[in-house]
TrEMBL record, chains A, B:
Residues 8-75 form the HTH gntR-type domain. PANTHER family: GNTR FAMILY REGULATORY PROTEIN (PTHR43537:SF45), TRANSCRIPTIONAL REGULATOR, GNTR FAMILY (PTHR43537). InterPro entries: GntR_C, TF_FadR/GntR_C, Tscrpt_reg_HTH_GntR, WH-like_DNA-bd_sf, WH_DNA-bd_sf. This is GntR family transcriptional regulator. Pfam families: FCD (PF07729), GntR (PF00392).
Length: 220, 220
DNA sequence: ATAGAAATATTGTTGAACAATATTGACATT
DNA sequence: AATGTCAATATTGTTCAACAATATTTCTAT
């Protein structure tokens, strides 16, 4: 299952490895990523590593300061607001024009089921990734390769923000039922209502994130 | 005016220069970009050039084939359909939630005026760039840095498609009046109608592009 | 304790090197 | 003439070592 990208250019494989470190929280926001240390750690040349850094910088996961190096991006209120603006645009837009028979709807339903099961088991990380799958499926409704790719980037950036949070239960758990409702609305061919529901979902999630960020920055 | 990106990393400046070549049509779709030739041409090392190539590949302007090199992306029907799907989502979405007093509306109006003037002078290239400015202003309505950046990427990809066309007058000129109408609708606080109008605009433009592509590929 | 200067480390960029892969061209076979 | 094979050549993939330019740290004098 762990596709390590056999055959892909080294820089891409590297970027992927570092990305997983970033979204799994093993690298903290603001932390500096020394070229020497990382090229050593991954056993690649500095040049290859720099290519990977550039890719990740373009994805918004790293920040580059001239002559000072690259740093893990630090989520701010502004970035969270922006990210949720994007999500409202893409996810609500996808839902609004969704076709009742689209295969992605089954993926949405499956994600809801999975979230339910995980929640029942108290597996909050599992609930989180099922939730993730749900929203990816929503974007799939748009049938656009470019939108999918863009959403993936936004999604990774958001996961970086999750790293700041310590309370995954409170963050994802309440949303499972809303996902269910949204799925049902699409299944019964009421895309407008589904989009409206998604909008309230996202506004709520946004406020939750902002609140959490506020709490986190008070501590620091 | 020509911001050559003083202080930015070399790879970024390079990418920008090559991007200009691409969207101005000086490099043709499908053409191979030899590392040796280009690092020589721009007087930079192969390593730096490769970083730039990676950036542009991520933007969808270049295509990378393992051990074979990078090529200018060749627009296909699929890519045009996808691009217009994205444009409908972003531009209609921006309009739908537009606030009557948003400063970007003045930019839209200004772009319409400029397009009018250029058209009167028969300056079709000028009409094209004014049209471009109009749509960028529409995205500005969303107040999202990430959406703006994404749209810029999509926009560059579309300009690559324009390169296939030989008839800028027929391509842009008929749309000036629609832009005017859309702007008026937003100015008079009728965002829903503006979005609907934009949707017909984009469907029309999409069909025009597809038709042109078809003609172009018949010749080849 | 602080300002400034010297010493050190890091990034930015280059050029050369070499292995791995792709393309070309010569040659033989049908 | 068309096709297949194999060596010769060119290109990409990646590394390494070097050095200039810029930051950071350490040291010193006040």
């Amino acid at each position: 299952m762990t596709d390590d990208g056999e055959g892909l250019p080294l820089a891409d494989r590297l970027a992927r490895r570092i990305r997983t470190l970033l979204i799994s929280g093993e690298l903290s926001p603001g932390q500096r990523l020394s070229e020497a240390a990382f090229s050593d750690r991954f056993d690649v040349s500095r040049n290859s590593l720099r290519e990977a850094f550039r890719l990740l910088t373009k994805d918004g996961l790293l920040r580059h300061e001239a002559n000072r190096g690259v740093f893990v991006a630090v989520p701010s209120m502004a970035s969270i607001i922006d990210i949720y603006r994007v999500r409202r645009m893409l996810e609500c837009g996808s839902l609004r024009q969704a076709w009742q028979q689209h295969p992605a709807i089954r993926a949405m339903r499956a994600a809801v089921e999975m979230a339910r099961e995980r929640r029942a088991e108290g597996d909050w990380i599992g609930v989180g990734s099922a939730n993730m799958m749900f929203h990816t499926a929503v974007i799939d409704l748009s049938d656009s390769a470019r939108l999918n790719e863009f959403y993936e980037r936004i999604s990774a950036e958001l996961r970086l923000c999750f790293g700041l949070l310590n309370d995954p239960e409170h963050l994802h758990s309440p949303f499972v039922d809303m996902n269910d409702a949204i799925t049902t609305l699409v299944e019964t061919n009421r895309p407008q209502e589904a989009a409206a529901q998604m909008e309230t979902y996202l506004n709520l999630a946004e406020r939750t994130m902002l609140k959490a960020l506020e709490r986190a920055s008070e501590l620091a």
